[in-house]
Design a protein that fits this description.
Layout lengths: L2 H13 L30 E2 L12 H4 L4 E6 L10 H5 L5 E5 L7 E5 L7 E5 L2 E2 L17 E8 L3 H4 L6 E7 L6 E10 L3 E12 L2 E12 L3 E5 L11 E5 L4 E13 L5 E14 L12 E16 L5 E16 L8 E17 L3 E16 L4 E18 L4 E12 L2 E15 L2 E12 L3 H5 L14 E13 L10 E22 L3 E24 L2 E14 L17 E9 L5 E9 L2 E2 L7 E2 L2 E13 L3 E9 L18 E12 L10 E2 L4 E3 L27
Parallel strand pairs: 1-35, 5-8
Antiparallel strand pairs: 2-7, 2-36, 3-4, 5-6, 7-8, 9-10, 9-34, 10-11, 11-14, 12-13, 14-15, 15-16, 16-17, 17-18, 18-19, 19-20, 20-21, 21-22, 22-23, 23-24, 24-25, 25-26, 26-27, 27-28, 28-29, 29-32, 30-31, 32-33, 33-34
Family: Belongs to the TonB-dependent receptor family.
Pfam family, one: Plug
Membrane topology: Multi-pass membrane protein
């Protein structure tokens, strides 16, 4: 990355005042998603029993009341040497496409939708960039408090791009008490990760500052069969070189109560990364690096609108930098991508019968690329309305919603109808159906992005989808740590038209193409058991079937590439705080890497184990060890390169707390478990009164 860009990012971050930060849209251009949504300050955790306590206004259940939502609490995974993708991989309906170790590209596939059909947000700020995809490697786990994963069409609530779902990454929140913490990890391939954080009262509010950095050489040995079709062909020992990466950044958050009970939240986030480009097994590279940078700013106001109900106003701005160096096609150009937008939302309950939510949003984006002097801009605007109808005393809820949006030259209409029924005895039923779209971005249409080529012939994607599920949850109002059980079984189906997917364009490039049509259907199972306060277990299974309906006989009826049919994850954690152990098993079946089904990646079974001990208090000292891929199973990325084998890591964490005078903890509706299905049936009997003045959860923000 050019030093001028680095200096610009640092200057912008330094000038961003927590009390004055504002997300201003640039003069021309457009966005692909929403403004930020803040979350709660850490506080004593309590269990909220849906159906008796109204969900906070910004909770995922409120923003999509019938959606298939899983919430993953990253705080439950403290001390584990896991990156963001590894924390997400346990969610049902979701697969991670990994291209290496630390710092290498990682993206999501949700319910068969390609990575460019899954919206990813950082506190509501859209992260989808090059090719419409979001790279999870640029969001270190140190920033994360929890993930909110919505599976299924998200167009009605979150806008263009949400064919398969949406993921909001909630960052760590500032707290009212003085607290300093830090963590350092060292492990295989000279991997070193670390962060320091401080939070506490500041300027009549609360602030958090977190700084992180990491590096890894990443090189490891593997065996290569150059002629796999020939029986008995000898294998050769090779070294996966150019798997190194390094990066760092900072997160600044500030929140403050305003007169009248409203609240202001501000965010500034900086990320820089430099990673090597290895090429492919058949065409390895001896040089070439990809330099990435991101500056994200956000501001949000939320509060009461009196008799009109509740409201919020959001603004965001994000600027990305991309530069490919070395002797690679497309190297030498420094690309800059800017996105900004605003959103206004209001929600008004009408007695116990229904509550109406209306959102109006607009955004813009532009890109400049020095190579070839390419420039383009994009504009979008949308209006969304959602009603929550409560029938039979709240036991039945019907939720129609619709979004109308203009994206560049495209008009898009995304309706959805959802329903839920509380069946009693802890059982609930939910179902959804609708239509979602993804317009190709101008980057995909016209701009070359490093090793990604454009295709001006692309058409907008469309998805017709439906899903249904039955859930059971132990129905008891219990204190934190008591016995809890839950299970969910559901199915889904979708038809994609003009599906956009990237394919390798030898030797090192990739280009997007439209599939004429594709079908996707599958089953999702989730379960969790916490029989004792010191023992928990969770599992998820996904069966996914995809079928290319493109008329070309070479592709017709074939599975879509990069969609494994089976994925199962099981996890057990046992022990008290002073010494606990954990194990996790991930099985993922084989998957094709092209439309003809002539080449595939083998299945993988990965076993990880670890242990943690908080052996000292005041300050708190925690020592953790982690062994990934214990059986040294060999897995491969989409280029055919092997992924890392067995790896070991040691993590030391320290935290110092000091209660600030006059400060108070604010109550919050904490997650009852690290991963749970937020089926609406759980709170189908929720009264339509506005919740008491409690801090709202940060949730998936609407897409402008």
């Amino acid at each position: 990355m050019r030093w001028s860009f680095l200096a610009g990012l640092v200057a912008c971050l330094a000038l961003d005042s927590p009390g004055l930060a504002w997300a201003q849209a640039p003069g021309d251009g457009a966005s692909q998603a929403p403004a930020p949504a803040p979350e709660e300050a850490p506080a004593p955790r309590t269990t909220v029993v849906r159906g008796k306590t109204p969900p906070p206004p910004e909770s995922p259940e409120r923003r999509d009341p019938t959606g298939a939502i899983t919430v993953i609490d990253a705080r439950e995974r403290a001390g584990e040497a896991r990156d963001t993708a590894e924390l997400l991989v346990g969610s049902a309906g979701l697969a991670v496409q990994d291209s290496g170790g630390y710092g290498q590209s990682k993206s999501l596939v949700v319910r068969g939708a390609a990575s460019n059909g899954v919206l990813v947000f950082l506190d509501g700020i859209p992260l989808n960039g090059a090719g419409g995809m979001a790279d999870l490697s640029q969001v270190p786990a140190a920033l994360v408090e929890r993930f909110e994963v919505l599976r299924g069409g998200a167009g009605a609530r979150y806008g263009s791009g949400g064919l398969g779902g949406a993921v909001n990454i909630i960052t760590r929140a500032p707290g009212p008490n003085l607290r300093a913490s830090g963590e350092v990890t060292y492990g295989s391939w000279d991997t070193v990760l670390g962060h320091v954080a401080a939070t506490g009262p500041l300027l009549d509010g609360q602030a958090l500052l977190l700084v992180h950095a990491g590096r890894s050489d990443g090189d490891f040995a593997y065996e290569l069969d150059e002629l796999p079709a020939v029986d008995g062909n000898p294998v050769t020992s090779e070294l996966r070189a150019r798997n190194d990466a390094r990066g760092g950044g900072a997160l600044l958050r500030y929140r403050r109560r305003l007169p009248g009970g409203s609240r202001m939240d501000a965010l500034a986030e900086l990320s820089l990364e430099d990673r090597a480009i290895p090429g492919t097994v058949q065409n390895p590279q001896s040089s070439g690096n990809q330099e990435l940078g991101r500056l994200a700013l956000g501001l949000r106001w939320s509060g009461s609108l009196g008799v009109a109900g509740q409201g919020s106003a959001r603004g965001f701005f994000r600027r990305d930098g991309l530069e490919v160096t070395g002797s690679l096609p497309g190297a030498g150009g420094a690309q800059r991508h800017s996105v900004g937008g605003v959103e206004l939302e209001g929600r008004r309950p009408f007695g116990d019968l229904h509550a109406l939510t209306v959102t109006v949003a607009t955004s813009a984006e532009d890109v400049t690329e020095t190579q070839g002097a390419q420039e383009a801009s994009w504009w979008r605007a949308s209006v969304m309305a959602m009603d929550e109808l409560r029938l039979l005393g709240g036991a039945v809820k019907v939720v129609p919603s619709m979004r109308v949006e203009r994206v560049g030259p495209y008009w898009l209409l995304s309706p959805k109808l959802g329903a839920s029924v509380a069946l009693g005895g802890g059982f609930s039923l939910r179902a959804n159906g609708g239509q979602s779209h993804r317009a190709p971005s101008f980057l995909e249409l016209y701009i070359r992005q490093g090793t990604l080529l454009p295709n001006p012939g692309l058409k907008p994607e469309r998805a017709l989808y439906a899903d249904a599920a039955v859930s059971w949850r132990s129905d008891s109002e219990v204190e934190e740590g008591a016995s809890r059980w839950s299970a969910t079984a559901g199915g889904f189906a979708a038809v994609y038209e003009n599906l956009i997917a990237y394919e390798l364009y030898p030797p090192l490039l990739a280009r997007p193409y439209n599939f004429d049509a594709a079908r996707v259907w599958g089953v999702e199972l989730e379960g969790e058991a916490r029989p004792l306060s010191w023992l928990s277990a969770s599992t998820s299974y996904t069966w996914l079937r995809t079928q290319n309906r493109f008329g070309d006989p070479r592709f017709f009826g074939k599975d879509l590439p990069y969609r494994p049919r089976h994925k199962w994850v099981g996890r057990v954690r046992a022990g008290p705080e002073w010494l606990n152990a954990r194990t996790e098993v991930l099985y993922q079946s084989s998957q094709f890497v092209n439309r003809t089904g002539s080449r595939s990646l083998p299945s993988r079974t990965l076993v990880s184990v670890g242990a943690s001990s908080t052996f000292l208090h005041g300050p708190d000292l925690t020592l953790s060890v982690e062994v990934k891929n214990l059986l040294d199973a060999r897995a491969y990325d989409f280029t055919g390169f092997p992924l890392p084998g067995r790896a070991a890591y040691v993590t030391l964490g320290v935290a110092v707390d000091r209660e600030a005078s006059g400060s108070r903890e604010e109550p919050r509706a904490a997650l009852a478990s690290p991963s749970r299905e937020a089926a609406l049936g759980r709170e189908a009997s929720t009264p339509s009164v506005s919740p008491a003045p409690e801090e709202p959860d940060a949730a998936l923000a609407s897409s402008p």
